């Protein structure tokens, strides 16, 4: 076949691929969600999340435009415990800095709805979406809207008694964001044309799903670490508080509270899950190497191994350097990218088995 014939065939396949714009849109949405997560991480690390004390879905898109508006927002912030206990030193200019990050985070979250709905309506009009695809995609839109509710539910927990948001609500908010990100990438990857090369068993799919569940649990555990500022203590590795298994992990009553409210226990759990994920991925790679190598669909496994090691290294560096914003945000973003990569691997495993 000549180069011209090859090009003509590729053009014909591209022209016949009516779902290509849909895939690009879904990948773009996933990237947008990741951007919101990154900005959310900066918002949390700069203690900006409680700077806007009201939820105005429409009018809240416009920031204060006059000195009077700024003073009104600042006065509202002065009424909550975070200001009186933690930030009473703030000037109006200091407040404007933290206000920006929370406002920007909310603006991006609102924009996500438009970035979804407008192309979705266009694709429906163009009949690119079957009913079997349109319904699940609309469910993802509802999940995105639910994220907005969870965000305000989280913020509201820090407006009356606490000086920061509840770690339980932070974990719910971040975990829901991970579900949305994973689902977008999984659907997009599932819509790729052609067949994936490789022999796949149900056991291999189940093993990959177990890995994805583990990564999601680790993201939730990381949210508890962040919510309790647990990373600001016990900043040594590999020992923790001078021991492999530190004392004092079950000092709270009832005992279950330690797993969610004791900073020592929460950080220990986060570390332990990381070790378990490293061991599990190493096992999957060893098993695949023994069973025939990494050709075709199983080429994802070496990439997953590298991402896991990078994530662990980044987590250790974040801890040892007292949680700088750049490393902490990178650690959170990479956790999402790891989860998304596992989701893409699962999608390809299922495509290979069809």
UniProtKB/TrEMBL annotation:
Name used for this protein in its record: Heme A synthase
Function: Catalyzes the conversion of heme O to heme A by two successive hydroxylations of the methyl group at C8. The first hydroxylation forms heme I, the second hydroxylation results in an unstable dihydroxymethyl group, which spontaneously dehydrates, resulting in the formyl group of heme A.
Transmembrane segments: 24-45, 107-125, 137-155, 167-187, 208-228, 268-286, 298-319, 325-347
Known partners and oligomeric status: Interacts with CtaB.
Domain of life: Bacteria
Cofactor(s) essential for the protein: heme b
Location relative to the cell: Cell membrane; Membrane
Listed InterPro entries: COX15/CtaA_fam, HemeA_Synthase_type2
Species in which this protein is naturally found: Devosia albogilva
